[in-house]
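Budget justification aside, the reviewers requested a transparent look at the raw inputs and outputs of the sequence design task funded under Objective 1. We therefore reproduce one unedited record. The lines immediately below are the structure tokens for a 392-residue chain.
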């Protein structure tokens, strides 16, 4: 099974990742990881930091002659902000004593990990919480998950996402969202993300893209921030990934966990999701057909998952991201030291990270799908897995 761990702080020297459980013989180079890392950095609404970070993951172990060796793969990614923005970090990293002149951050931002993180770990300074809870960590997540994504691609499974709503701006109705989604699955997920990448808000509709940009501009001026909804499509999925036999084997449950475990995510649905709750059964379930070769479904309202298992139809996931808690226009908070009621203080941030978060969401579900695939067709090497997969 593929497992990964990331380490590193937002303004520390680097992010590190370890990915284990990748079968031997998978073609893998730094260039394979670079594609999605670069995509994650593009998007309207991003903050100043993305102008100078150039995320490149260096592979330090587990790969030889461009192929995995079956052992742990370690990745390294430098933070350019380490030089540019000291944040007190270079000075205090390897000292046991508290350095003079390093200002403590004591104003927790509503909606952020700041206050609870400081309470939980008994910090009198929010800085350590900010550093590790920051979405900077998603850069290494995309790199680690890029390996699982490369594995899935090898077996014809592609993942692609696009934005369907930013703030109030989005497709006019559920029917429209569904129609867009139905057309997209015909194109295959790789084409979906490549087409979405043509828009700097990652929306496939040009008119909507322009409105979304205006909405972000408006909230930037107002000193606020924006979230939204995205859709992720997975194509090429074989029947039977996941299982109905135990709660923790269910593919939809695992996908939901991966999405909600991503910074700022507040909601997830699969297929008709919440819409299924508003409709009677005959308008929700997908009728079963057979084309002489295989069972099919006449529609894909279940979003490719029935009973916690992939049913061979494309998997459709929608995720909701909240607006970023760091805003130019302050909210009320309480100083952790003086207990004085005051305003939050602004730190450099993105106004809307949703277009970039789509790439993170595409990435985090890759290990989930790869593991469900390995559970069914698993082996120690790619050639062994290929043999099992061909028998399907
Ligand atoms: C982030 C704050 C900003 C973002 C950062 C996430 O960084 P900074 O505080 O240095 O301006 O740019 O995202 C990234 C650096 C990234 O690579 O995604 C936060 O507080 O979560």
């Amino acid at each position: 099974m593929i497992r990964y761990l990331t380490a590193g702080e937002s303004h520390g020297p680097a992010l590190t990742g370890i990915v284990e459980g990748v079968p031997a013989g998978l073609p893998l180079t730094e260039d394979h990881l670079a594609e999605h890392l670069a995509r994650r950095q593009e998007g309207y609404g991003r903050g100043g930091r993305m102008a100078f970070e150039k995320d490149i993951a260096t592979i330090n172990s587990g790969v030889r002659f461009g192929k995995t060796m079956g052992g742990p793969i370690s990745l390294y990614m430098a933070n350019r902000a380490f030089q540019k923005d000291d944040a007190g970090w270079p000075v205090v990293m390897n000292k046991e004593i508290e350095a003079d002149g390093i200002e403590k951050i004591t104003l927790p931002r509503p909606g952020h990990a700041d206050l609870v993180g400081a309470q939980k770990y008994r910090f009198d300074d929010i800085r350590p919480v900010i550093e590790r809870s920051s979405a900077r960590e998603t850069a290494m997540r995309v790199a680690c998950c890029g390996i699982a994504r490369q594995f899935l691609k090898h077996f014809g499974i592609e993942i692609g996402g696009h934005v369907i709503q930013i703030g109030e701006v989005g497709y006019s109705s559920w029917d429209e969202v569904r129609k867009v989604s139905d057309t997209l699955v015909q194109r295959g997920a790789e084409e979906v993300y490549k087409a979405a990448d043509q828009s700097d808000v990652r929306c496939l509709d040009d008119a909507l893209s322009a409105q979304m940009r205006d909405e972000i501009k408006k909230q930037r001026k107002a000193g606020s921030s924006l979230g939204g909804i995205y859709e992720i499509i997975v194509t090429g999925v074989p029947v039977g990934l996941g299982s109905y036999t135990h709660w923790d084997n269910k593919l939809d449950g695992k996908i939901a966990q991966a999405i909600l475990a991503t910074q700022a995510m507040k909601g997830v649905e699969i297929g008709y999701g919440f819409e299924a709750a508003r409709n009677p059964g005959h308008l929700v379930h997908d009728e079963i057909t057979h084309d002489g070769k295989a069972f099919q479904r006449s529609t894909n309202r279940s979003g490719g998952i029935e009973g916690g298992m992939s049913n061979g139809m494309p998997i459709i996931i929608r995720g909701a991201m909240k607006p970023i808690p760091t805003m130019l226009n302050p909210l009320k908070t309480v100083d952790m030291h003086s207990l004085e009621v005051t305003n939050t203080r602004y730190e450099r941030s993105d106004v809307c990270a949703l277009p970039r978060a789509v790439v993170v969401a595409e990435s985090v579900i890759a290990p989930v799908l790869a593991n469900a695939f390995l559970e069914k067709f698993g082996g120690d090497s790619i050639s062994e897995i290929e043999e099992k997969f061909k028998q399907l």
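The radius of gyration is 22 Å. Residues 3-391 form a domain with the Chorismate synthase, AroC fold fold (CATH 3.60.150.10). Computational costs for records of this kind are itemized in the attached budget.
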